[in-house]
Design brief:
Elements: E1 9-18, E2 27-33, E3 40-41, E4 44-46, H1 53-65, E5 70-75, E6 80-83, H2 86-89, E7 97-107, E8 122-129, H3 142-154
Parallel strand pairs: 1-7
Antiparallel strand pairs: 1-4, 2-3, 2-8, 5-7, 6-7
Length: 158
């Protein structure tokens, strides 16, 4: 008998942040999580009750990297989901994974990144060439990242 159980996905936004030198240089921001060694990712976070994805995007950027000084270039046209691997699933209960909305944004000139926020999530950050990006990304997010990056590349942004 087939299991018809619906998965419980947490609504979430994620930001693919291009450096302020874009389009002359196509470098993308990634940060290393404090709580998982060598887990590099894009800034992301939950969408609060009554909040739009764009509102959540700006709030999460301010909370995670200390700035919301970005300009939205494009938005991935659909929700993308992934399941948590067992190594993190126990901490994320009652959610089985995340249902995300991805935004491609450009950091404004002069914007100051500060990962030492009130509740720090990242220990380090860097901007990497788009071609090398998935070399750094934590294993369970690579498939989604590749799909979203492929779309933005096809659209001519990266």
């Amino acid at each position: 008998m087939e299991d018809k159980t619906e998965k419980n996905y947490r609504p979430n936004v994620a930001a693919i942040i291009l450096s302020s030198s874009y389009p002359a240089k196509c470098e993308i921001f990634i940060a290393s999580r404090i709580d998982v060694e060598n887990a590099w990712q894009f800034p992301q976070g939950g969408i609060d009750e009554g909040e739009t994805p764009k509102e959540a995007l700006y709030r999460e950027l301010k909370e995670e990297i200390g700035t919301d000084e970005v300009d939205i270039i494009d938005e991935y046209p659909q929700w993308v989901s992934y399941d948590f691997p067992p190594v993190v699933a126990h901490r994320m209960a009652p959610y089985d994974g995340q249902r995300q909305r991805y935004f491609l944004v450009k950091l404004r000139k002069g914007a100051k990144i500060n990962i030492n926020t009130e509740i720090p999530e990242f220990s380090n950050y860097k901007f990497v060439n788009s071609e090398k990006l998935t070399d750094y990304i934590t294993f369970f997010k690579r498939t989604v990242y590749k799909k979203v990056l492929k779309y933005f590349k096809k659209e001519g942004y990266i």
